[in-house]
Every structure is written in structure tokens, then in C-alpha cells.
Design goal:
150 residues, alpha+beta, 5-stranded antiparallel sheet, 54% helix, flat
């Protein structure tokens, strides 16, 4: 009589062994993934730490050398550093500005010592000893002129 249970037992053993091997490979792959994630995290932490250390060193170098210059000495220093022209232009430009005011806008021109305001009522421009006011009463062309309503 043939013992047919033996090949089944061998096959069953192979299946169990292959399942165990697959589980071990899965565990090893998961372990490898976890190791890679931890290593990537460490590299990121080191990179951030190095960058912040460099930035702190740069800031301490800048903060360690305060300078207080005035007049011609300051102008000479700025020209030597190559920053005088851009700084001078920025200061000049900052003197000319348009402000939002409660009723509209206001523009200031220090060189002309004048001020202009733009409101819903019109435009008012004033200088040292003069002023001009304009108000829109109507608009249109030819026979089609319409009054301005508020």
C-alpha cells in the first residue's frame, strides 16, 4: 500500500517554511525601512543644526561690530562699502508718499513744499503761498452732459 500522506506532509512543510520565510523577509524589509527613516531624520536634524549654527555665527559677527558714524565720516564709509547711492535714493524716495486719509488720499511733495488731497469732493493742492481746488460738477460730451451726484 502506498503512503500518500508523506508527499502531503512534505508539501505542507514547504508551505509553512515559505510562509515563515516571507514573514521574516517582511519583518526585515520593515526594519530596513524604519532604519532608513531614522537615518533620514538624523541627517535632517544635523543639517538644520548646522544651518542654524552658521546663521547664529553670522548674526553674532554682525552684532559684534556696531558702528556709530555721523556726517562726512558716515557718508565716506557708505561710499566705500558701495551702499551710499542706493541708501540715498531710498531716503529721497521715502520723502514722497501718498497716505490714505479718512476722506481719501493725500500726497506730499517736500521739494515743492506742497500737498495735494484727493477726496470725493474733489482735489485740493496747496503750496507755500498758494492753493488750488478742483471739483467735478458734471461729466459727458456735447449735449450729453450729466451732473455728478453724491
Amino acid at each position: 500500500m502506498l503512503d500518500r500522506s508523506r508527499p502531503i506532509a512534505m508539501s505542507m512543510c514547504r508551505v509553512l517554511m515559505s510562509q515563515r520565510f516571507v514573514r521574516q523577509r517582511s519583518a526585515t524589509a520593515a526594519h530596513d525601512r524604519n532604519r532608513r527613516v531614522v537615518m533620514a531624520g538624523l541627517v535632517a536634524v544635523l543639517a538644520i543644526g548646522m544651518a542654524s549654527t552658521t546663521a547664529a555665527q553670522d548674526a553674532s559677527t554682525i552684532a559684534a561690530a556696531p558702528m556709530s558714524l555721523q556726517g562726512e565720516e558716515a557718508i565716506t564709509h557708505l561710499k566705500q562699502e558701495g551702499t551710499y547711492d542706493s541708501l540715498s535714493a531710498a531716503v529721497a524716495k521715502a520723502r514722497y508718499f501718498i497716505n490714505r486719509i479718512a476722506s481719501g488720499y493725500e500726497a506730499i511733495n517736500p521739494a515743492e513744499q506742497s500737498r495735494a488731497s484727493f477726496t470725493g469732493a474733489g482735489v485740493h493742492v496747496a503750496g507755500r503761498n498758494w492753493q488750488l481746488g478742483l471739483a467735478l460738477k458734471s461729466y459727458g460730451y456735447g449735449d450729453d452732459v450729466r451732473p455728478v451726484t453724491s
